[in-house]
Amino acid sequence: MSTDLNSRPLVSEDQIAQMMHRLERSQSLVGLIGLGYVGLPLMLAFCSSGFRTLGFDIDPDKVAVLNRGESYLKHIGDQNIAFVRGSKQFEATHDFDRLAEVDVAIVCVPTPLGAHREPDLSFVVGTTREIAKRLRPGQMVILESTTFPGTTREVMKPILESTGLRSGTDFFLAYSPEREDPGNAEFGTASIPKVVAGDGETASRLALALYRRVVVNTIPVSSLDTAEAVKITENVFRAVNIALVNELKIIFNEMDIDVFEVIEAAKSKPFGFMPFYPGPGLGGHCIPVDPFYLTWRAREYGIATRFIELAGEVNTSMPQYVVERLRMELDRRFRKGLYGTRIVIIGIAYKKDVDDLRESPALAIVDLLIAAGAVVDYHDPYFPTILPTRKHMSLAGKASVSFDPESLGSYDAALIATDHSAIDYEMLVRCVPLVVDTRNTIASDSPFAHVVARA
Questions:
Q1: Is residue 270 pLDDT above 80, yes or no?
Q2: 119 three-state secondary structure
Q3: 44-57 burial string, b = 16+ CB within 10 Å, else e?
Q4: What are the backbone dihedrals phi and psi of residue 355, each rounded to the nearest 5 degrees, phi first?
Q5: Residues noted as catalytic
Q6: What is each CA distance from 402 to 276, 377, 395, 405, in whole angstroms?
Q7: Which pTM was predicted?
Q8: pLDDT band at 448, cuts 50/70/90?
Q9: Which of 44, 233, 426, 444 has a CA 20 to 30 Å removed from the CA of 256?
């Protein structure tokens, strides 16, 4: 779409008032681009507030599943999709020409890292270009994907304004970072406060009016860059503190001190302490990735982010630490090494009770064990087979083994990488002579605790 700057249609104050009126009454059509772990629950939250929604995804198979009233995310559930389809509040499509229909286009696409830990904004850029092809006066465009400060203003805005339309007068641009926590039963999309910023005062007012219909509380901030920095700060905070407890775990293990007991006692202090828990490494779409978006951006300003990068080094080294702990326990208890040893990994999802493999440290552990000559299988009720991932393509298609006494009894050791609730841990410790527990899943006073090693 191209518009002459001297004759382009401006959005009048009356039209802005009409937009506000429609937003405040959930009468606007909301388009969500990217129907994954962020876009799908966000769509349900908008539908729950009375909005009609149109979902866009490049995967036609996902579109077909959703339009049948089914879900491909276990924590969402078929019944939720079936309800919004039955009420005609939601439709999925891979026809991006339909972006012209929506009043609000919300971008919920991945922002991964490249091969050298540099930001990969290809999904954001590609999506913005698709929006720009159909952009019309009066539309609102909102980015929710996590990214470095400056992305919305410096990357998206020029692409959208290349149409001849201008942000703040012809269309309205905003940023509101997603705060999804898949599998969290206590906090869902609608019950988590939402940080919101617009490109200019009008865009801010419109974006706040939209999200106030959907979430429990909105937090306006002064600029797009500030809102982007809020999300980065949240995830850097978690990454750094998890690195700290991971390092404490290594120290306390050498001192024969249970780090989990230490944390439980420390969190009894009603001020000045917040519990974080160690594990086999970091996984998911945010915490292993987002700090490196900030370190990359900081280098443009000549600033070294030593603290953040050190935390990243600690967290990314944890799979190697876990494998070494397993090797040491095998040597100490059975005088054998990893080569030829049969090991079953319990849980390969990055997080408890979710069907998400992104950046899962369990995959790194499997690769390290195979490289050491071990015979490695896994069991995960959420993954009958391992899906293709960019870093671990050799594992794609590997199938989950059965979880029963006969199968478990064939292994020399088990390693708990993800503490899914559905696992019978009592059966595990009864059947396998060594269980390495990275998640503090098995109680220290268990009758079978003698077969358990903490890692």
A1: yes
A2: strand
A3: bbbbbbebbbbbbb
A4: -100, 65
A5: 286
A6: 33, 10, 18, 9
A7: 0.92
A8: confident
A9: 426
